[in-house]
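Tokens for chain A. Residues wanted.
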């Protein structure tokens, strides 16, 4: 749950870009166990965690969904909203009571298109998040399914 500095919203975006993004946020809350989205569903919004935690999970045929990563304060929940076809690649569930900023994906994409500097900042931030999540998924799946676990990185 400790995100690298570049995936945490305050460290990834300038104060001006954070402020611009937060102007269109809506404050929401979810009880523990609430599903924010399902793998394969439409990615039409995203969240930034204020308080609480979110588990990202992945369907595994014949098994219970595997938790890939846990997200906390200031972390981005969802990146599929930025990239076509705008379909969730994972699922997400509130692991504890959750308070978050919610964003309409179409509105943020429109802001990105109208301001290339802002759009570039958002794209770099979300790209860092994607890279981090892919590595987390790889390590978690190795831990779960490889004969000897992920072991020590070389």
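Reply:
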């Amino acid at each position: 749950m400790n995100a690298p500095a570049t995936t945490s919203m305050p460290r990834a975006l300038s104060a001006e870009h954070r402020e611009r993004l937060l102007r269109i946020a809506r404050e929401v809350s979810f009880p523990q166990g609430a599903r924010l989205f399902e793998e394969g569903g439409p990615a039409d919004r995203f969240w930034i965690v204020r308080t609480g935690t979110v588990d990202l999970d992945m369907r595994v045929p014949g098994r219970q969904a595997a938790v890939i990563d846990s997200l906390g304060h200031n972390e981005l929940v969802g990146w599929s909203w930025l990239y076509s076809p705008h379909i969730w690649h994972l699922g997400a569930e509130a692991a504890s009571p959750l308070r978050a900023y919610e964003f309409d994906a179409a509105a943020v994409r429109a802001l990105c298109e109208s301001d290339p500097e802002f759009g570039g900042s958002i794209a770099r931030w979300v790209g860092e998040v994607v890279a981090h999540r892919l590595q987390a998924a790889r390590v978690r799946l190795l831990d779960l399914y490889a004969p000897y676990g992920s072991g020590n990185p070389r």
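DSSP finds four helices and eight strands in the chain. Residues 87 and 150 are 29 Å apart (CA to CA).
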